[in-house]
Amino acid sequence: MVSDIGYLVGAIGTFFAILDPFGNLPFFIAYTSSLGSRARKRTALVLSVFIFVAMSLFLFSGQAVLNFFHISLPAFQIAGGIILFGVAMSMMSGTHTITMSRVISDTGKECLLERNESILPRIIVPLGIPLYVGPGSIAAAILFGSNAPSKTAFFGGLLVILVIVIFITLLNMSSDFIARVLGNQGIEILVRLMGLVLAAIAVQLTLEGITGAITTMILPSLNEWLSISG
């Protein structure tokens, strides 16, 4: 029982910190700035469903999924960094706003998510992956999924994820009020500012991925080669 409680306390602190509802809210506002109120709320719902499904998948069988595709965590970090950096550049240059406005003009604000082939990829990447469900989130889900002391604790961890995702949903759906306070110019400034922050996160992710690759892959192979040749 004590180990189960410790597991759940650790899960609450870790998943809340790693999914970072408050820290990711500005990115949600910035990335959905061109959407109408109704479309933004539906975007928040779709995003939350994706976060919960993805986190649950990695909690249940995360390492097996990565192993199946022969993907290492450092490789995922580097790929995530590259994706985020491209998005960050578009946000800083203003092309992101132009692109989203073009999508809206093609679909209409109110039916934007009904014709989801146009908008869903822009929700899943980069909002879903790798902002919310990134290398850190995946590593945490794999760790807690494999180290659960009991089935009760395991499903308790799943419940923790659900509660945090519901909180993320409520927070993102309230972004309309924040967007109205900021105004159009304020949102445009936020988009460019968050683009700069996102670029820094992307570089950090890439550096961590390179460091992880060197530590877990290159150095062991080099040491093995030196021991054989020596």
Short synopsis of the structure:
The chain has 230 residues and is mainly α. The protein has helices spanning 2-19, 21-31, 37-68, 73-93, 95-107, 116-132, 135-146, 151-173, 175-229.
**Assembly status:** single chain
- Helical segment tally? 9
The percent of residues in helical segments reads over 70%
Percent range for β-strand residues: under 5%
From the N-terminal CA to the C-terminal CA, the straight-line distance is 52 Å
Characterize the main sheet: none
DSSP E strands, number: 0
How would you describe the shape? flat
Low-confidence segments: 103-117
SSE pattern? HHHHHHHHH
Structural features, described:
There is one protein chain. The protein has one domain. It has 230 residues and is mainly α. The protein is flat, with a radius of gyration of 20 Å. It has nine helices and no strands. About 7% of the residues have low confidence.
Topology readout:
Blueprint: H1 2-19, H2 21-31, H3 37-68, H4 73-93, H5 95-107, H6 116-132, H7 135-146, H8 151-173, H9 175-229
Descriptors:
single chain, 230 residues, mainly alpha, 88% helix
